Amino acid sequence: MTWIDITQPLNRQIATWAGDTTFSYETVATKEQTGSVNVGKITMSLHSGTHMDAPFHFKTEGRTFEELDLARCIGSVSVIDATSYEEITMDLLQGQLTDVQAVFVKTKTRADAHIFPEEVPTFTEEAVHYLATHNITLIGVDVPSVDKVHSKTLPIHHALEQYDIYIVENLLLEHVQPGRYKMVVLPLLIEGADGSPVRAIIKKEEQQ
Q: Which positions are catalytic?
């Protein structure tokens, strides 16, 4: 089985939150200028494209990336199809969390990474509790937030953090079938940061 890249490519067209920093890359020095190398620069929000939220993103005293456990970011994941659901419920999760440490949810919302959605399906608080009772330590979604787009209180972010469940947003899952996979979802070690881009890859687990 080959690894599947589920990372949104970063480019100038990728959708961002209203008022947030848009992504740009530029070559600030060329090989012709330096005599040896090309040198590039990026400008971006830490919540552009596929990224992980640190608790500091929504809690003043929350942890940042140097305090998070990378073991959570490598392991077994269940990809769940929620494309026919308006919200992510406990019933949807039942029977799909055995022997995995993470859950990725494929929704019907995000078909184009260049268009920011007006509405997104979110987890119910009952579903978050169910994740915690099954020892899930990381969740990923294919939308920009685990909360409603216009939420200011972010109840699902806080509920997940209460159970120490890491949050990955803007995964690219439209080409991924439901099932069990191996995953690698590693954030950059940006000290003191509220978010980080990740390179997310998965590989189908072989049947025993």
A: 57
